[in-house]
Write a structure and sequence with these properties.
Number of helices: 6
Shape: elongated
Order of helices and strands: HEEEHEEHEHEHEEHE
CATH topology of the largest domain: Ribosomal Protein S5, domain 2
Structural class: alpha+beta
Largest sheet: 5 strands, antiparallel
Length: 232
Amino acid sequence: MPDDAEFQESRATAYTVPAGPEFRHELEIKRSRFITVIARTPGEDQARAVVAGLRREFHDARHHCSAFVLGPDRDVQRSSDDGEPSGTAGIPMLEAVLKRETVPGAADLSDVTAVVVRYFGGILLGAGGLVRAYSESVSAALDLAPMVRRQRLRICSVAAPHATAGRLENDLRAAGFVMTEASYEQQATVLRMALPDDPAGLAHAAERVAALTAGGASLQPGGTEWVDVPLS
């Protein structure tokens, strides 16, 4: 997880990422097979490893074109035509990722690598046809790939007796709070909540904790972390 110092260098407080490590989708266009792989990649090394792995898996394919966008601010962007005419594959794929609206009116998809493996079907598509094919391949895969929001949240803790911690955690989840991994100490279970990093949100959570425990537990703010939360 990035620390607070790293977070302060980012302008973004939330963005969208693929929910799983990998998603695949295939289109056939004029007898050519376009196999699109959408992978979650937090860094450039992971992105390049995905491309290399697909080259090995589909070693008999003619092209393994790629595009990736990384970081909360989407400041790392790369693409490759991998032997297709210049500008007909990598750039259209990159634009499909960059222009993808994952929340209404906002395009913020990142930490994602798109690879399109092409098996040539014997019919030339021309430059315009290639641009459409690669763009549509990525767009179609993104239409179906599950996504989650990645938010920078304040991690707060609540210490509760072992006997009542499970019920308290369920009550907090039911109230709409995002719970992260708990820890177990000798005298208590420490529940952790991921909260919006603003005074009003923290105050509301503290009041709810106090009400659910009849004042027996209190909310202890901690540091911030990037946390995956479901798309609303």
